[in-house]
Amino acid sequence: MFKFKIQEGLKVIQPGQLVEFPVAQIRGDFPILQRIVHNKPLIYFDNAATTQKPRSVIDTITNYYTSYNSNIHRGVHYLSQLATDDYEKARKIIQKFINAGSSDEIIYTRGATESINLVAATYGRANLKSGDEVLISYMEHHSNIVPWQIICEQTGAKLIVAPIDDNGDIILEEFNKLLNDRTKIVSIVHISNSLGTINPIKEIIDRGHRYGAVVLIDGAQSVQHAKIDVKTLDCDFFVFSGHKIYGPTGIGVLYGKRAILEKMPPYQGGGDMIKSVRFERTIYNDLPYKFEAGTPNIVGAIGLGEAIDYLHSIGIEAIANYETRLLNYATHVISEIPGVEIIGKAKHKSSVISFVIVGIHPHDIGTMLDVDGIAIRTGHHCTEPVMHRYGIPATSRASFAFYNTFEEIDYFAESLKKVIKMFS
Length: 424
Ligand code: 7TS
Known about the structure:
Blueprint: H1 6-12, H2 23-28, E1 36-37, E2 40-41, E3 43-44, H3 55-68, H4 78-98, E4 106-109, H5 112-127, E5 133-137, H6 146-155, E6 158-162, H7 172-178, E7 183-189, H8 201-210, E8 214-218, H9 230-233, E9 237-241, E10 252-256, H10 258-263, E11 274-277, E12 282-284, H11 298-314, H12 316-335, E13 340-343, E14 352-357, H13 362-371, E15 374-375, E16 377-379, H14 384-390, E17 395-399, H15 406-423
Parallel strand pairs: 3-15, 5-6, 5-7, 7-8, 8-9
Antiparallel strand pairs: 1-2, 4-10, 9-10, 11-12, 13-14, 14-17, 16-17
Helix pairs in contact: 3-11, 4-11, 5-6, 12-15
Residues 48-49, 111-113, 141, 143-144, 189, 193, 218, 220-221, 241, 377, 381-382 line the site of ligand 7TS.
């Protein structure tokens, strides 16, 4: 079925390196990759939406429910202690993973979306006033636009949007011009989910700080592809989702600098986020529990810790290297298909390829590829302003993970050619 173009792929990209990455072995770790879809082997190219889970994560979840399911922090009994230990162990794994100074700076949330909403609703509400500005970019996911719109509406602050160029890069000169003493918050995506652009976040963070702004980095598309070090970056907040990093859905992370988190009011009220409750006055809990009201996603946190351990077992640098070669190869192969236009041609890109084909609606492309067992995403990818910027309603998007192969890309390209032929 596959046209083995691996040698060609290597010639195009980095000769001699492909064999070093044990992709066949890695694929064996992901049970779902053995699936047949519409009588074809599944080719899963929708990794920017959510990633598949390795067996170790699935087993961890099963083991939790079969042997020590229990609520945390509240029980003296054995199971509760086991659950609490693993839940807190995962927090330490996450702390090390992004090099936070303390596990108290790791807040569990439902995902990147909730993490940004938390910052907007607490830090934003407490610190923004009429005339202040929140600076974002044109390539933000809706979850890094709408929470700021809501809080700007409530506080009288203004949302300012830095433009992007035709390649999908932030125009840094314009970004710099938009920074001023009124800028209180800068909130920028690290890697764009619809364009693949890798933003120069260190430069953006440093510039934001020069004007006294706090800087939030949306790492939903970056932690799984690149080593993150929040201390070196010096960002004030960093957010990501567990399900995009081979962990479960419904769990995510907000990293925040301790000094800032301590001053922030709580997000939601309820159990666990308090030290004591009197009708006259409630004393809030210490970090990180102040922001974790109610019974959390215990198994989600434990599963996320396991997912990070799994990533470590492969090595984030090896992953990044292999994914870059997949991206370069796919870019080369797809660019050669007449009629296909890639949207998002930034110099520094992650393993996302958005494209349009003149005369064929992305939904038709997605549906026809699905018949061949290929899962891609079509639509605006929750980045409607990006679509408006390029004057298109939607794109087709193939996004790769380290379990994808060069052969899959070949098969995808052949399938795409069939789609074009059918519509021509
Ligand atoms: N930020 C970015 C850059 C994203 O890509 C996404 C999700 C989010 C935030 C929100 O993450 P969530 O886990 O809280 O939903 N992006 C996508 C996508 O590209 N396709 O489906 C979800």
